[in-house]
């Protein structure tokens, strides 16, 4: 129903200690970028039982990939399947003060920096550059040779045992910034400011959040939780600013209460109610009910229903320009008539434990989303009033009538002996999107069938190994039903079909040198399954009036579809991942 913000927390240690972990990948294919990562954690007292300090940090480096098709031709997108070089690092610290037993006051600071190489137009078309030939152009597309994503977060909190229960509260401030984006030709010209073409584009957001939660036992059978939350969000979009718009702002607050009621020793009921208030949409009530029955020592049944509320993003609601996409060529406008999503989630589960090494579980779920928020273009039947006089490819958000997902999750583990065990999982998922009472497509691109199985062998106290098989079924390539495909979508679909399913095998081992030092190694994609083969199809070409002018060769990958977003994935070829962990 609610809770305190998610910030890394660990108890202050009685003495100084910590851990360091170093890991990295060694891909067999030299075109695949290798990964290196180092992380550390240090924790200890400054003043015994009064003041403690924890410091954490990490560094991640990924070499750029330049994957090439193993058969056919085509281009493997560097915006996902063949990622660009990146460097990421973070550092954080927490100071914890314990004024008396049962009470803690803490201060936390965290900073993260990420940089992505865009010299070969991996993330977006470079300003004034033809990415194919390298020749100079007069067009700014909105990207420099490096993109940076920066985040800083500061928080203060309290946790204490009071006479009426446990109280937790925190106040946090987060700031996010994107650097390396510029003002493209289209945006500058539309605003009547051609002098700004290629100038830095401001992309910043800040959020302030206050949380408080009290957990209090009421008698012997009730555990009551009550709390509140307030959030203020501000987003600054440089392209909107040059068009005369102001920064986007949004305020929300919430109250919630939940009671865990032990009806009997084996039956527990939980009921909750949350009230959200949005400065545009007003108030919304979200109830929740859940039941857990320990029928026997071996069998547990559980199930419940909950409702949720999700407001649109702050820039989706503006009355006018919200930004540009598609390499700066596609205008995005807000929709002041956009309504929040309302969801109802239902689940029913069964857990089994024979107390002799075999456990199993099954959970059926159903989710219904009212006013599902989707994106469309101004040349569709969903056109809104703000589209008047704007290009046909202008995008905006609007509400679909309803979306549904449902499925089944299965899991099991069997311990054959102290040395051998096996675990398996399976998930079946389906969905539909409904508009005016008619099913118009799928709600998500999640594979309908996903499964995995792992065999573990503990050879002795120092050595262990495991073998894993994983399967991911096919998923949709295009959003609509086949009857609504464009002619080119039908042609591509005829060549490669939906996103193809696949199976992979992974093999790993671990060596525990002593209680403080552990080494591990894993071979992913053990049999080096090829995901880089492409299929040829004939693509129709069109002029500006929409008339067909001819055909040309095009190439598609059975496992991925790369356009404005990427569907599917290209798993790495055979790769050795090694890791060393030292605790002290």
From TrEMBL:
Residues 64-80 have a biased composition (Polar residues). Gene3D superfamilies: TonB-dependent receptor, beta-barrel domain (2.40.170.20). GO terms for cellular component: cell outer membrane. Residues 120-526 form the TonB-dependent receptor-like beta-barrel domain. One of its GO terms (molecular function) is siderophore uptake transmembrane transporter activity. Residues 64-90 are annotated as: Disordered. It is a multi-pass membrane protein. InterPro entries: Beta-barrel_TonB (IPR000531), Beta-barrel_TonB_sf (IPR036942), TonB-dep_rcpt-like (IPR039426). Belongs to the TonB-dependent receptor family. This is TonB-dependent receptor.
């Amino acid at each position: 129903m609610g809770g305190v913000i998610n910030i890394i927390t660990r108890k202050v240690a009685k003495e100084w200690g910590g851990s360091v972990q170093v890991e990295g990948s060694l891909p067999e294919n030299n075109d695949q970028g290798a990964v290196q990562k180092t992380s550390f954690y240090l924790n200890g007292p400054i003043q015994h039982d009064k003041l403690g300090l924890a410091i954490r940090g990490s560094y991640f480096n990924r070499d750029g990939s330049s994957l090439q098709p193993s058969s056919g031709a085509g281009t493997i997108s560097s915006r996902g399947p063949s990622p660009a070089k990146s460097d990421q690092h973070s550092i954080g610290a927490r100071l914890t003060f314990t004024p008396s037993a049962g009470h803690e006051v803490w201060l936390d600071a965290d900073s993260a920096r990420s940089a992505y190489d865009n010299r070969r137009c991996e993330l977006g078309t470079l300003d004034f550059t033809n990415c194919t030939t390298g020749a100079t152009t007069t067009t700014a597309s909105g990207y420099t040779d490096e993109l940076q994503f920066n985040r800083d977060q500061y928080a203060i909190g309290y946790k204490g045992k009071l006479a009426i229960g446990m109280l937790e509260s925190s106040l946090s401030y987060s700031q996010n910034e994107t650097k390396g984006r510029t003002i493209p030709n289209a945006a500058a010209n539309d605003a009547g400011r051609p002098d700004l073409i290629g100038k830095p584009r401001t992309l910043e957001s800040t959020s302030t959040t206050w949380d408080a939660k009290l957990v209090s036992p009421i008698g012997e059978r009730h555990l009551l939780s009550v709390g509140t939350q307030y959030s203020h969000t501000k987003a600054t979009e440089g392209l909107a600013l040059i068009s005369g718009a102001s920064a986007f702002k949004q305020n929300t607050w919430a109250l919630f209460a939940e009671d865990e009621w032990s009806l009997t020793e084996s039956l527990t009921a939980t009921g909750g109610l949350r009230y959200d208030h949005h400065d545009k949409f007003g108030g919304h009530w979200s109830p929740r009910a859940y039941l857990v029955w320990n029928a026997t020592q071996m069998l547990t049944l559980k199930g419940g229903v909950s409702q949720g509320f999700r407001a649109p993003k702050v820039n989706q609601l503006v009355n006018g320009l919200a930004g540009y996409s598609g390499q700066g060529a596609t205008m995005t406008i807000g929709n002041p008539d956009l309504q929040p999503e309302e969801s109802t989630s239902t689940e029913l589960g069964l857990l089994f434990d024979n107390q002799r090494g075999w456990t199993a579980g099954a959970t059926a779920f159903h989710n219904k989303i009212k006013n599902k928020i989707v994106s469309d273009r101004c040349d569709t039947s969903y056109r809104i009033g703000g589209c008047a006089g704007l290009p046909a490819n202008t995008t905006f958000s609007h509400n679909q009538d309803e979306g549904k997902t449902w499925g089944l999750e299965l899991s099991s583990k069997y311990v054959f002996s102290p040395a051998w065990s096996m675990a398996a999982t399976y998930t079946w998922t389906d969905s539909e999107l409904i508009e005016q009472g008619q099913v118009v497509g799928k709600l998500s691109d999640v594979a309908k069938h996903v499964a995995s199985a792992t065999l573990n062998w503990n050879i002795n106290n120092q050595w262990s190994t495991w073998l894993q098989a994983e399967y991911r079924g096919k998923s949709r390539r295009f959003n609509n039903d086949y009857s609504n495909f464009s002619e080119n979508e039908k042609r591509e679909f005829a060549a490669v079909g939906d996103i193809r399913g696949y199976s992979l095998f992974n093999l790993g081992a671990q060596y525990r040198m002593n209680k403080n030092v552990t080494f591990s190694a894993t071979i992913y994609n053990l049999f080096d399954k090829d995901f880089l083969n492409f299929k040829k199809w004939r693509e129709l070409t069109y002029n500006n009036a929409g008339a067909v002018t001819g055909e040309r060769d095009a190439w598609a990958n059975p496992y991925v579809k790369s356009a404005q977003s990427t569907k599917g994935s290209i798993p790495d070829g055979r790769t050795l991942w090694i890791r060393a962990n030292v605790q002290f």
